[in-house]
Amino acid sequence: MSDTITAAPPASSTTSLHEDGSPDRLAIDTIRTLSMDAVQKANSGHPGTPMALAPVGYTIWSKFLRYDPAKADWPNRDRFVLSVGHASMLLYSLIHLAGIEEIDKDGKKSGAEAVSLDDIKQFRQLSSKTPGHPEYRHTTGVETTTGPLGQGCGNSVGMAIAERWLAARYNRDGFPLFDHDIYVLCGDGDMMEGVSAEAASVAGHLKLSNLCWIYDSNHISIEGGTDLAFDEDVGMRFQAYGWNVIHIDDANDTAALAAALDTFKATDDRPTFIVVHSVIGYGSPKAGSEKAHGEPLGEDNVMATKRAYGWPEDAQFLVPDGVERRLRDAMIGRSRPLREEWEAMLERYRTTFPEDGHQLSQMLGDKLPDGWDADVPSFDTDAKGIASRDAGGKILNAIVPRLPWLLGGSADLSPSTKTDIKGRDSFEPDNYAGVNFHFGVREHGMGAIVNGMTLSHLRGYGSTFLVFADYMRAPIRLAAIMEIGATFVFTHDSIGVGEDGPTHQPIEHLATLRAIPGLDTIRPGDANEVAAAWRAIVEAGNHPTALVLSRQALPTIDRSKYAAADGLNKGAYVLASCEGVPDVILIGTGSEVSLVVDAYEQLTGDGVKARVVSMPSWFRYEKQTEEYKESVLPKAVKARIAVEMAGEIGWDRYVGLDGKTIVMNTFGASAPIAKLQDKFGFTIDHVVSVAKSLMETK
After folding, report:
1. Active-site position among 443, 529, 592, 644
2. For domain 572-696, which architecture applies?
3. Which fold has domain 4-338?
4. Does the fold of domain 572-696 match that of domain 4-338?
5. pTM to 2 decimals?
6. Could you confirm whether 443 is annotated as catalytic?
7. DSSP at 594
8. Is residue 667 within 8 Å of residue 507, measured between CB atoms?
9. Lowest-confidence segment of 145-154, 177-186, 230-239, 557-566 by average pLDDT
10. Residues 372-401: tens digit of each pLDDT
């Protein structure tokens, strides 16, 4: 049973705080007033939470966070995650006062401030470094993109997992290379979202003592008081998850908060959950109101609030003398010696353990080991074939030993998704070196955790059935926004699931995944396309991938007769064709590729000039040159048919107004697969018939 500690009441009441003229209080009020001024100038944003949590954020950064502002990508830095992404001005103010130095897209210091005062004045404006919600890659000092509530909480569990795995894999006696902590600010909205509950349950099970969530319990949400819909005891909930729970009666009591964080640092058998009670928009005449939370205070209220702080009420974006250096000096004084010592230790490590040291250099540099794909199998021609999920499992098992930081698991489905690594241990509280991850029936939490792992230099993957992609769409979308190489493996990809019926037969899911900008959705047509897909996924670490695989066996195509599977790299390729310009083009993906190949052979036997295009990835195809696209789908050929056991949306782009589709326009049904293929028209005879009728109309 976890311990619950209640901090002592604050030494001074909140009504007298404005009389405290200490340097720390001056810095805290600078954060508050910068947040108010930025939101007011933008006429948009959330001022209340940054104002209320300024003492919390400042205390973490000034006294605990191991983070060198001059080296924002130090691998062993502590992570600070603002899950309450609407409070972005709190983070931007901290980044500015800490003097974090910008790192450009090439990983080099640009010589500029990560967030300047001018950037703060451009809050929420086009092309500024201070967007409405924090964005990873966009602003140095932002560890993950947050805004959709609960996602930062989920990411933080992945980051904590990554630290534990890296420590177990690479630390040696006298070489504690990885020992950093993860701090998270979250709020009532995060606690209402199911994803944070899923992630917290995983963290408690794994006893991630390097993880600390600070929960701002202010009892306000957009609609008003949280008692409209939320009145549970959150602390007791986390106690049940196996977390150490600490209560702070007043967010302004920085001494009590520091004591709680000291307790976190001393706890080694469970994560820590600190409940901080605050008044949203502290000091504002609108404190505790929705207005203080979700919109600018208004000029009169801003001036009145500054008066309450003892602040010059006409001053805007004021950073008093000494404040700019106070936070930076505190962080540098604590963190720079640690960072320099760590870098020296890493050099000694590379000499003492050259193989692991080389591996670390590759991982931290986001590079691949030489020969990482040397053991990827090729598959012989086989009419019976193999399910693409089974092929995927064989390929994954061939890659992981040569690419050990390719890590992941499933949402309680590894026997079905085939993502378990044979002969290897599970990642559990008593073995953080394990490589098989068990996320439980928690698809949403899994997606957010995989993103957090990937943000820590690991190549994270998670797997489930395609129909459950709906449960984890937010983290998939955020992975695309962040441009990180997370991989989401989805099996049971069509009505081929058969007797499980329409509840488990994905219809609309391919279209909705393809609609996400920056997400590569790959649906391979046979085992060798799966091998090509995994090669493409690993080599492209700057975007996420949804790998979509079948439960049923797919014939392994004769690559001596048809085109090589590495055509997948270009998204679509000519698999088989006639001499000259075809009369009809058959386009297929996944399990339907072999179907259109069979239809092509019958059409060819009937004297029809036909072509087969395998199109596993629209994302990759759209990146090709117009010349290449023309070589695959000539504009002059209007007779085109797309065959896919999924919804129709989007296929008009490739078949044109004159083309046809053989797709799913309804949900599926429960029956053996052969019966379903016949019912819904996924047969050779039907494809041939549609092709001939289409040609007759030309």
Report:
1. 443
2. 3-Layer(aba) Sandwich (3.40)
3. Rossmann fold (3.40.50)
4. yes
5. 0.95
6. yes
7. H
8. yes
9. 230-239
10. 999 999 999 999 999 999 999 999 999 999
